[in-house]
Structures are given as structure tokens and as C-alpha cells.
Amino acid sequence: MPLRLSTRDPGFEAGFATLLAAKREVQEDVNAAVATVLADVRAHGDTAVIGYTRRWDRQDLTPETLRITAAEIDAAVARCDAGTLAALHEAAARIEAFHRRQQPEALSFTDAQGVRLGARWTPVGAVGIYVPGGTAAYPSSVLMNAMPARVAGVPRIAMVVPTPDGVLNPLVLAAARAAGVTEIYRIGGAQAVAALAYGTDTIAPVDKIVGPGNAYVAAAKRQVFGTVGIDMIAGPSEILVVADGANDPAWIAADLLSQAEHDESSQAILLTDDAAFADAVAAAVEAHLATLPRARIAAASWQAHGAIVVLRDLAEAPALVDRLAPEHLELAVADPDALAARVRNAGAIFLGRHTPEAIGDYVAGPNHVLPTARSARFSSGLNVLDFMKRTTLVGCDACSLAAIGPAAVTLARAEGLEAHALSVAIRLGRAAE
Amino acid sequence: MPLRLSTRDPGFEAGFATLLAAKREVQEDVNAAVATVLADVRAHGDTAVIGYTRRWDRQDLTPETLRITAAEIDAAVARCDAGTLAALHEAAARIEAFHRRQQPEALSFTDAQGVRLGARWTPVGAVGIYVPGGTAAYPSSVLMNAMPARVAGVPRIAMVVPTPDGVLNPLVLAAARAAGVTEIYRIGGAQAVAALAYGTDTIAPVDKIVGPGNAYVAAAKRQVFGTVGIDMIAGPSEILVVADGANDPAWIAADLLSQAEHDESSQAILLTDDAAFADAVAAAVEAHLATLPRARIAAASWQAHGAIVVLRDLAEAPALVDRLAPEHLELAVADPDALAARVRNAGAIFLGRHTPEAIGDYVAGPNHVLPTARSARFSSGLNVLDFMKRTTLVGCDACSLAAIGPAAVTLARAEGLEAHALSVAIRLGRAAE
């Protein structure tokens, strides 16, 4: 049974604190193994990448076959189901349209002292997208990671995807093409992260690496951070549903399971002001589990990490939501906008009874790469700004420097930084002052 | 002598690649010591913080005296020089005015399918600012770290600053007050980072920690990342000056030294198209060093990490600038805007002969916390968005879900995620389909 709490219960605060503090993920320490792979690829380039790929993916590659050719992508796309391709392109178009609205504006003005000030945004020069192989090869994830880079104007988007035993989901290649990926390599693991970060004879280095992966990939990303930028390290999926008793329990149960089915470490939580509805949802979860193909995973997640919290009143919800800071927040209530306005911490909010979280995983338009493990307290989902950087601009002439320079000289001297002071004062003709 | 390169030289590419690859910072491995401190503070709270402060700062504190009182801040401000305070407030006002222009706008629209979409920004709930003690206690750094948080609307800004042997720069407290810091604790080191991340009986936990520190502080920030957000880990300062022969060599030499004086690991590089001017700048550097109080540090930086690159033509500059991706880029040329437009990677650009970089350290307005070690290729200086997070919003009604839901069902099934498909299909009345 999932955890059951009630805010009326005297033990509620202790139980909720335990829920908040629970670690769902077992961290494998693979740092030493990953450091060896990174050093090897850095030193031996393609040869090392090919060696690891032979060992772990059972693929014999050469520098010439590392890259998936346009003809191979054509052939893969031709194998895809037409209806699925149409859905993929519908999703790509909607994701692109939403992300286009995130493009930042440059700033440029001259202030009252005559100082020209500004900030401008430029795209990152080259981005690497990691895509897991095997069962977790999700075309939607390719769209969500690559499209913001394309909208940002990144000229080079290099994707890596392992093909263990030669297996590759053709929809992943179709998604890469739809998202504007410019090159694809059939490699994975820490060796692929190293190739992207350091470059090899065949693979030019990138400036930033994004995308989900296993413990080795996550550790490799952490270790190359600094040499390149990385995105956040994503944890297991989470959904928090706030629902009143007027919902269909089968709908809400499906929503909880949509995240529980990702991984045994995923977490689904229901907050409701109606204890009888809570019981009905719990029963509906069991009913759905009887038919779902991923029932084993979903049930394990629900049993170990699921929770139902019964509230005195929905007005108690925002404070609890903010403490949980969920990746996904579904507000299946009569006035979702009013409730949303009172929430501060959530990666994405799904408003109303007809907005299941899964719509955001595929076609709504906003990104599905969102902060997990309570990090919505301080971070945001993947977006166009993650693939751009801002440069600030300052321009003084003799007159405006004369206006603001003396304060800089005073502060530099107060900090004991006389060369700082000198570089301003010498232009004010006060160097010898 | 600093490194001297010329693009006419056949060995140029190799020399420039060596300059790019050079590591200037010795990384101390203090991870194990820091992990012990973090675990101790997490388990024992104030008692552990007070114990480490006694040992390392030689200060006997109690939970009651951890926090610096308003009366103590008043007294410190009263001791500050009036002219310096005026300069500090001028700087604070200019920094605040620039950062106010970074406030993001919310997004809200309904698309052609009737889907309500949006994104809104909310401030981080509580921020911790680390301020080094001793000689590196810079009031300008307090302004630059705290002001963006205040402009973002962060309700709680907690500062920590160690006071070894009771020494504290009163201007640091004055800067904290000017920047809207809401509470100040006289602690530092890994124990202060732990107190901010985990909280103690006296210090409530924060959501994000920013600010510079020594190797222990940097390691502590890395280790608490995830529990809280952190800013980038700043490396040694850098300046890249692109100057033609029409500049006063003494001005340019002062600019190079303004960053070289920070730290022996700092780096100052000159790119010029005029070899005679390069010689004149080198001579002017030596002349300034004869009088500067921090000459030993500046000379060590200039000798070990400085470089002069003579170009055939200033048109060669942008490509080299982009590879160096400097923290600070000064363009002391006849048409700095044209050159700036051709540069992609730089933390901040200073335009023209009358804009020494140091003006940006204090009073120009943009932030002086900028990406170092070539990370301007993929990251930006500290800004208001670093203290906010974005939540995306999606709202469907039955009609708009019917419009976009089928594609989501198709993609979920293609990914083998039937509970995802179910949560949409059940609302479309197609669950049994």
C-alpha cells in the first residue's frame, strides 16, 4: 500500500517530513570506472570509443561507420508507421511553436550619465544530445532535448545514441531529423560523453551536453562539466495530483500511474480533500494495474513511493505543494487557475480535469525535461535559454567615464585594488592624484 | 616574460593551442575533509558550526551570537568613510537599475487548438550568499551577488561571512545593507555552506547558495548541489584586451594589470595588430609594476599566464576571442561595435578606449560575476534569472484535448507507455479502443 497521510492526524508533520526526505534513487558510485573511460577517450580518441563500443554494445565500428548516414536515416524513417510519424511531426511543430516564444530579447540603452549599456544573447556554438538506447529510447525525448537548441539557433547539434547489438528505434532517428539534429553517432555510455566533450578525429567537440542517461552517463556528464556545459542530472519522474472529489477516480488513477510506470523509483502522490475519493482512486489504481503492460514497474513505484494525503481543505494544498516542489503538478479542481496562482514551486502545472500530465510529455508544447527531486525550488525546465548565453556590454566615452569613474576609483581603493583604480584614474587624468 | 605569439609565425597554432589548454588553477582535493564537515553540521547543527568556527576562526560564538545584529551593522556603517559609502550607494543604485531591466515577462496565450499555454517566473524562496572574509572581503562582490536576488524578489537573503579573529570589513556590512540582505551570520568555510544548505536551529535552510570562496567552500557547494542550487564555481579572473596601435600603452597596461593583480592564477592577454605597440605595452606594464602595491601578485600572474599576441590584422581577432571565450573582453579599437558584433563568446564586452574593464567591476551596472575558464562558450554572468525559476502551464478543456490528445496517445503507445496513453485516452472516451 502507498503511504497514507491526513493533515488531521497528529503524526502528519512527521510523516510528511519523512516523505520529503526519502531518497528514491540508489546512487551507484561509478566515478572511478567513468574517469578511466574519459581519460582513455581523451588520449586515444576514436580508437578508444570504438573499443568500448565493441565491448559494451557488441558492435564493430570503424571511424567511417561511427556516424549514421543520411541514407540510413532515410531508410529508418521509411520503416516508421505513417500514423506515428504524423503524430511525431505534430508534436515537433507544437514544441517548436512554444519554444519560439522563449526567444530572449537583446537589451540596449544609454543611461542618464551617457553610459551605453546592454546585453545580447548568442546561441551556443555546438551542442551534444545524449539519447539512451534500448527500451528507454524515446523519440519524444529527442524532440524535447534537440528542439530548444534548434530554436536557439545552435548551428551544430550532434546526437549520440548507442545501438547495442545493432538495435535502434527508427522513430528516434525520425525524431532527430524532425528536430534538426545535424549529425548522429551510434555510440553511447561514458565513451560517447567523452567523445562529445573532448572530440576525436571523427567527432568534433561540442560546448554543451544535454540529455538523460544511466549512472555512467550521469557520472560522465558531471566529470566533463567545466570542459563543457551540462544540463541538470534528471532524477526519477514525479507527479503530484491535487484533486477534489468531483473527479472521475479512474482518470486520476491513470494520471498517477502514467508517472509510476516510468521507473520503480518514480513517485506519484495524490492530495485530495475527500477521503472517500482517495479510497476510490486507490481502488482504481489497482484496477488499472490489472491490465497495464508495465504493471510490475508501476505497482512497485506506487507501493514504495506513492502517497495519498487527505486534506481538511484544498487551501492546505499550496504550502504542501511548495515543500514537495514537484516536477509535474496536476490541478484537477474546479478553479485550477486560482490554486495555481498560490503555488510557487513546480516544474510544470497542468490545469483542470481535462489536462492529464501525459499531454505535456508529448504534444502540449512546453518542455518535458523538468526539475526533479525538489529542485523546482531553484531551477526550471529545459528551454531555449539553456542553449544561449548572454554577453553584457558597457561603453563609456570620456564624458560618461568622468561621470561614473570616480566612484569606481574610490571603491577599488577601498578594496585595496590599486591597478583597478589606476585603469580608471589614468583615463580621468588623475593617475597621479 | 609573458608568452609572445604572432599569427605570422608558423608555430602560432601550436602556441595558441597550448595557451588555450593551460590549466592555471591547482585543484586541491579537499572533498573528504569537506564531506566530514557537511555530515557533522547536518547531524549536530549549531553545535558543529560553532565548534568549527572556534577551531578555524578563533571565535567563541553561541547560537545567540551567530547572527550579526542590526545594531552591529549600524555601528559598522557608522565607521565607514562617508565618501566610500557614497560611492557604494552610487554603485548599488546603478547595479539595481541595470538588473531591473532583466526582469522576465510571463507568457500566456491560447493557441489555435484552444490549448491554454504559458510560463511564469517566481523568485527562489531563500538564497544564501557566501562572502569570503579577510583580505578578499570585497563589498562590490556583496552588491553583485545579492542585488540580483533582491531584484528577483527573493524574500529571504541570508549572508554568511567569516570573521577570523573577529576581523570584519565594515564596508561588507554596509554593502549587505545596501543590497537588501535580510540576515547575516559571522561564519564561513564548509560549515557555513552546510548550515545554509541543511539549516540549523538558528539558521533556516535556503534553496540556493551563491558567492565565491576558497577550495573548501567550492567543494562544499559542489557537494550540497542537488539539496540546494548553486551558482557556477568561479575560476581565476581573466581579461582579454584587443587594442590597436592608437591607444595609450599606459592605459592598456593598467587594464591588463587590473586583472593580473587579483591572483597569481589570473590571466591577462593582449591582442594587437601593432608589434611596436605590443612592446610599448609590455614596457608600460613593467613601469606600472614599479609602483603598484600588489605588484608581486600582478607580476607573477603576468609572467606565468600573461600573453601578447600580435595579429596580421584585427580581422583575425574574433576567431581567437571566441576560442579563448574570455570572462572580460575589452575592445580598444576605432570601431568597437563592429568588432563586438563579430564575437560570439565573452562574458562581458567593454567598448572603446574609454571603457576600462574595472568600471564594470564596480559601477557600470551589469554583473561582475562572469563565466571564467572558457565557460563563456556555454554560460552567462550572474543575473536576475539565476534567482528565479520558470513554471510552464498547460490547460486543456474537453475540446482542445480532443484536438491534440490523439497524437499523444499514438506517441505514448509507440514508446510502450500504456499508462501515459490511458490517461489521455480515458478522457477522450477511447480507453477501450
UniProtKB/TrEMBL annotation, chains A, B:
* Gene3D superfamilies, sorted: 1.20.5.1300, Nitrogenase molybdenum iron protein domain (3.40.50.1980)
The chemistry this enzyme catalyses reads: L-histidinol + 2 NAD(+) + H2O = L-histidine + 2 NADH + 3 H(+)
The UniProt record gives the binding positions of NAD(+) as: 130, 191, 214
- Enzyme class of the recorded protein, top EC level: oxidoreductase
* CDD domains named in the record: Histidinol_dh
Task: Name its pathway.
Answer: Amino-acid biosynthesis; L-histidine biosynthesis; L-histidine from 5-phospho-alpha-D-ribose 1-diphosphate: step 9/9
Q: Where does Zn(2+) bind?
A: 259, 262, 361, 420
**Pfam families in alphabetical order:** Histidinol_dh
Q: Which GO terms of the cellular component aspect does the record hold?
A: cytosol
Q: According to the record, how does the cofactor bind?
A: Binds 1 zinc ion per subunit.
Quick one: a GO biological-process term for this protein? Answer: L-histidine biosynthetic process
What EC number(s) is this enzyme filed under? 1.1.1.23
In the UniProt entry, which residues are flagged as the active site?
327 (proton acceptor), 328 (proton acceptor)
Which PROSITE patterns has this protein been placed in?
HISOL_DEHYDROGENASE
| GO MF entry, a single one | NAD binding
Say which family it is in. Answer: Belongs to the histidinol dehydrogenase family.
Q: Which NCBIfam families match?
A: hisD
Role: Catalyzes the sequential NAD-dependent oxidations of L-histidinol to L-histidinaldehyde and then to L-histidine.
Q: Identify this protein by name.
A: Histidinol dehydrogenase
The species is Rhodospirillum centenum (strain ATCC 51521 / SW)
